[in-house]
Description:
By secondary structure, the protein is α+β, with helices and mostly antiparallel strands. It folds into two domains: about 1-60, no CATH class; about 60-90. The chain has helices at about 50-60, 60-90; strands spanning about 5-15, 15, 20, 25-35, 40-50. The strands form two sheets. A three-stranded antiparallel beta sheet has the order 1-4-5. The protein has a two-stranded antiparallel sheet with strand order 2-3. Strand 2 (about 15) and strand 3 form a beta hairpin. It is elongated, with a radius of gyration of 17 Å.
Amino acid sequence: MPSWERRIGWYSFGTFTDRGPLCVTYHTWLLTPIGAKKCLVTFEEVATGRAARYARGAYPEIVHLSHHKGNLELHTNIQLLILLLHRFVGL
């Protein structure tokens, strides 16, 4: 059992209409240590609303495709941040 776990969570909203947002999404990342300088990141997401229901039926692969793209961008940004920290902070 890890000595600590941390959960980061946030909401995002789709386009707003007179009836409220078309989609409300809650994202979480659960960070669990697995070594001295490593952690396991578990992604969770729940989407509700008319746009989410429509997308699940019409484009079931859209979430996986958009998250794959987002994860690649996140990985690139993390690598850049690590390089900058090494250069300017000496980590």
